[in-house]
Structure formats: C-alpha cells, structure tokens
Known about the structure:
TIM Barrel, globular, alpha/beta
Amino acid sequence: MSASAIFAHTMPTPTTRKRVTTLRLVQMKREGTPIAALTAYDALTAGIFDRAGIDVLLVGDSVGNVVQGHDTTIPVTLDHMIYHTQAVVRSVERALIVTDMPFMSYQVSPQEALRNAGRLMKEAGCGAVKLEGGARVVESVRIMTENGIPVMGHLGLTPQSIHQFGSYKERGATTEEADAIKRDAEALQQAGVFSLVLEKVPAALAADVTSMVDVPTIGIGAGPECDGQILVWADMLGVTTEFRPRFVRRYAELADVMTAAVGAYVQDVRDHNFPTQEESY
C-alpha cells in the first residue's frame, strides 16, 4: 500500500464505533467480514490503533520480545501481562482487548488456569484471554468458559513451546501434524473457545480448519482464507529492523523515520538551533 493510500484512509465514522465483542467476531465470520487484529502493549499506540478501526487488540506475550528485549516469550510473567493490559485498556473504546496467558500461568492445572485468567479479567480489564495448545489445554479452556471467561485458542506455531520445537519453522506441514491440528481445533471449539489463532501453518491447512469450525480463525502466516489476520505492530510498521518474515507486510518503515528525526534533533541541539526564541518561555 502506498503512503498516499494510507494517509487517505478515513477514520471510522461514529456508526462504526460500537464496542467489538466476542459475539460480534462470530457474526463477522458468518457475514464474511474479515477481522483485523494487531498486538498492543501500551496506551499510546493502542489508542492510535483503536481510532484507526482495528477490531481486536492482543496484549501479547510478544511484549517479551518487542518491549522487554528477550529472545523468547518465556520470561514474561502474569504481573507483566496485567500491567500492560491495564495500560491498553485505558485508551481503547472500540476494539476487543484479548490478553495472552503467559508461560506456566495455565499449564499446571485447570484450577490454576481459572484463577490466573480471573486475575487478568478482574485486575487488567481485558475482554478475553488467549492460551496456546490443543488437547492438553482443553480442560482449562472448558473450566474457564463455564465460569464466564471468553477464551481464544492458539494452534500451529506456539511460541511458548519454542524450546520443545527447537525452531520457528512452520507447523502442520506433515499429514500427521496437520491432522493433529484439525483434531485440536475441533476439541477447542467443543470446549468453548470463541476464536482460534492459527500461526505459521500451510495456507491449505488453515483454509480447512476455517471451514471446519464455526468460530472465527485469525491467521498469522497462515494464508488468506482465515477469517481474520493479526500481526505484531512493530513488525507491520517497520520498527523492527532484523525480523523480516515473508508473512509480514511492512506498511511503513518507522525505524528509518524515527532514526532520521532523532538524528535531526541531535544535530539541532549540537548546533544551538533548538530551542529557538519562539520555542522558549
């Protein structure tokens, strides 16, 4: 998309500002209306994304990579997720806010998963939680949904299992793994998830899962047939410079813009060109 096309995009009208709910996402699937989702970790960027018309904001445990500087999402804690979700909630009026349950916040037992999900809903104010995995988390999903906590599933490449996988390569490329993902999708739907993230799986597999389940699928590196798409905002806007997977379309190169702007500021300070009299009290 060209820069002119981006800036020509109009802001959502008041009639489109109604709060997005889990029910609305299911309706969007039935209507054939694609769901647009992004990650968010702070009030400033979340407010911008919300005003631009995003449907879902995921407070992802990718905060460990994007904000905290970790190589994986493993170090992220439940308290971290509560903190960042609270910030996002403060500036969002329309988008559904979903929060990742971090590593080891739901794996120990369904009861502990319920307690931790409850903390996210009560203390952070999100509208739903997301957790990774299939059959092994079905009971946790069931107990959460039975107690009024909306749950988004996550299949395919699940970053919290990176040490088990050993790489970030696509999942579901073999018949055996593809069949397992399909079984997991059906099991998660039966347990009550309202949507499924499909990460880095073959497009044909994602299309099969999307047609199999009644809940919306949201893809990341999973092809065009999913009911929606999600990207990490820093990748999509070109703030990250080294991570360039083929499934990320870069709608801007903000790292270049920011570097040039800060460089100009530094030079103006060095040259005594900032501040001017007009910029002083």
